Amino acid sequence: MLLRVAVTALICLLSLTSVIFVARLYRRDNASSSEWIPSFSAKHIEPCPDNLDWLLPLQLTYPIKYARRDILVNPATGVERLPVTKHDGTLFPDFQSVDLTDDGKVQLRNCRDPLTLRVPEAAKSRVDASHIIFGISTTLTRLDESIPSMLRWLPNTQAKLFVIVIEDDDVPDESEDRFHPADSKAMSDLQSRMRNLGLDVTIVNPLSTHHWFSQRYFSLVRVMWEHRQPTTKWISLIDDDTFFPSMPSLVDRLSDFDTSKQYYVGALSEDWWSVSRYGLMAFGGAGVFVSIALAEIVNSKYQDCQERSHTSAGDIRLRECVSWHTSTKLTNILDLHQMDVHKDLSGIYESGRLPLSLHHWKAGGPDGKGYPLHTMHLVTDICGDCFLQRWQFGSDMLLVNGFSIATYPKGGVKQLDLTKMEETWDHPSVVEGSVNVNGVDHSLGPTRPKLDLEQEKIQYRLLDSTAVDGAVRQIYFRKGADGGQDTVLELLWRNQIEHEPKVQEHRSLQ
Prior knowledge:
alpha/beta, 13 helices
């Protein structure tokens, strides 16, 4: 009996060894063995967990309506990011009422197997942006507050960041100094902490105690010029709330320019009133990119521009210097966003476009609490450049990854022109006599009218996103209407592919 067991075990071991050998041989000569043999290290996914205690810190009002789904990400060569990708099936099972008043234990009845989504093959995990120097002028407190967002785009890029900091601008009018200087030890401690987090940052004092904000901002040109390397091609002036969702895409876009020539690259404000008032300039929050050839000229005229300009805006001072001393004009890139429209910016975030930059995330929004981009962007750790990517499920649901899930009860998604941006924001100031009647046609157009929430559009906004066990959990939330139950939708994104997708994808828009 023991001999028979031993022989059986030996046969199984030899079989397994043969399979692995063939897999490795196939991988060496052809494709990856993962294309045809299952991964032995893949974890089992339980679509019906019996504990939701991770919901407790969110302090929800129970009972709630709840549904969940696991998403398995399959990065594939040749897959494009489309304006919207369709799936015939629905995303979630039916809602279930859940009450976690006493503890996190539940018995879920409505569960579905994981859904596999094919996404474009992931961009390089380490992008080389060593040819870019970024510069910010801000306060010590605001810089500290910006660390979570910077951790989403700056580390592992080899790009350097120089920050001019002060304590605050609150000084008496009769004072010769224009600001309260930051404490030197606090500057050193913050710099050390940021560097330990992987941020290649250097924090410096203003070049002059007599500089107003616009002069400190403009002086970044000199600071970055003096710290340039032979490989430096761009200096970039940004705000402490400028966010770059995809550094590979940004580097790729900037590679279109020959930086031995003079380039002044940025974006106009989305608000035509601001453009009409301030001119055809790169608005600072979207990111201003100055080629090294142009930076050399601006730096050589630094003192003249500091003394000659009387504007209170740093990006205007830079534009003035460029126009006074060169014939260089703005190269406008629409995918850089100043975000000069206000209140509900769902239309921009739900457009399906991957922006090169975003701004003003610390404030605004329908609740005035801003947009937590570092949380919204977390899912890219699993699926690459999938931030704000749109998927349609069935006839009436759109997932905008990292921002919202929405259903359209009156006519479904087919009644929407998804090539146009929904005008969810407050209408900008009108420029009298302008044909730009919406005030955003030059930047965000074409647009479509705002839908009535709860009647034409039911929106579940991202409430929280966390990394857990090699996955990313997203929580989308909708407040119950007329005293009804709140709704929580959970998506758990994983990059461990265990099986082929059960649903068919196809192009929806060209």
